[in-house]
Design brief:
About 55% of the residues lie in helices and about 0% in strands. The chain is built from two helices and no strands. It starts with 6 loop residues before the first helix and ends in a 26-residue tail after the last helix. The mean pLDDT is about 85.
Length: about 110
Amino acid sequence: MGRFYSCKSDFNTVFSFHFILPFIIAALVLIHLLYLHQTGSNNPLGTNSNLDKLPFHPFFRIKDILGYFLTLIFFLTFILIEPYTLGDPENFIPANPLVTPVHIQPE
């Protein structure tokens, strides 16, 4: 007799793992931020590294805002100049009310 192998249990296991994993990662990130906020980051050499630090604002904020605007400009240009590039060619076939489409079949 052959051994019966159920693929459904493997699917449920993989689905459960992929569903729970983002919550575990989010919890670990929050714990990491909590500990980082409480203790702060340290320098293993013990030297004062405040001279090497850059303030978060304006350097990183300006860089992030520039990235958002460049992405927005790219997508808006693509959408406004070539709106049908990623569309389905079948959307441009004129409808014929006398013929039922091929993909619609009676039961």
